[in-house]
Specification:
By secondary structure, the protein is mainly alpha-helical. The radius of gyration is 19 Å and the shape is globular. Strands 1-3-2 form a three-stranded antiparallel sheet. Strand 2 and strand 3 form a beta hairpin.
């Protein structure tokens, strides 16, 4: 990693020390979740500090914040790295995601407003219209935007706070998908089923839909299945707690 790519939150050098660390964390989080820093990539404090024009202190604090969110792994004497993608990581993140998204979908089904329904439809339209040249990052951005709206509809502040760190790890996984064509070609239909379940106003139907949705996502992300897209295999998360 030689330079920090352009874009993302700016670092305000006039900010206080805690605020500066938070701004650096925002910048690094954006790079990690959008693929600017690859899974397993080492985070070198000196290079990051020079690229962001800050001292090493805020960078060190920012890395600690990201480690607490699960986006960075730190090891004694080995420094810090962006989380790697292992089968166990995927199972843990997606089983946790399923647990909280059941609640989000159930509440959203009961509280879906016309405004959020229209916003969901707008995301679906953009998913449908993605060109064949769309990247995994393009699809992932719309995927996460859709689910952010579900959490907004759920209207549960503590659930939002639980989703935030999980969201970052989900973003890393989505941006690292190697089955881009399958991901792009199926995203609209899969999210349309979620939207239709929400529109029924039935919490049970919404929960059943998200169990299917996240179960299949886990199946597609698992390294042992990544090269063989199919919807015929058992749903690995159906009915898990």
């Amino acid at each position: 990693m030689d330079t920090i790519p352009p874009g993302g939150p700016a670092v305000d050098l006039a900010a206080s020390a805690p605020a500066l660390a938070a701004l650096v964390a925002d910048r690094l989080r954006d790079m990690i979740t959008h693929g600017g820093l690859a899974p397993g990539e080492r985070l070198k404090e000196t290079e990051l500090a020079a690229a962001l024009h800050v001292s090493r202190g805020p960078v060190r604090e920012a890395i600690a914040l990201l480690a607490a969110e699960g986006l960075v792994e730190t090891q004694r004497y080995k420094g810090a790295r962006v989380i790697s993608l292992t089968a166990r990581d995927i199972e843990e993140v997606y089983s946790l995601r399923l647990a909280i998204e059941r609640l989000a979908m159930a509440r959203a089904a009961e509280r879906l407003t016309p405004e959020i329904r229209a916003a969901l439809d707008g995301v679906l339209d953009r998913m449908r219209d993605l060109p064949e040249t769309a990247t995994a990052a393009d699809v992932a951005a719309l995927d996460l935007e859709f689910h952010d709206l579900v959490y907004e509809a759920a209207a549960h502040a503590r659930l939002d706070r639980t989703w935030a760190p999980v969201r970052g790890q989900v973003a890393v996984f989505l941006h690292s998908r190697t089955d881009g064509d399958y991901f792009r070609s199926t995203s609209h239909a899969k999210h349309l089923r979620l939207r239709d379940a929400l529109a029924t106003g039935d919490p049970a139907a919404a929960v059943a839909a998200v169990e299917d949705h996240i179960g299949w996502v886990l199946l597609r992300l698992a390294p042992s299945h990544i090269d063989t897209p199919t919807d015929r295999s058992p749903n690995p998360l159906k009915g898990t707690a």
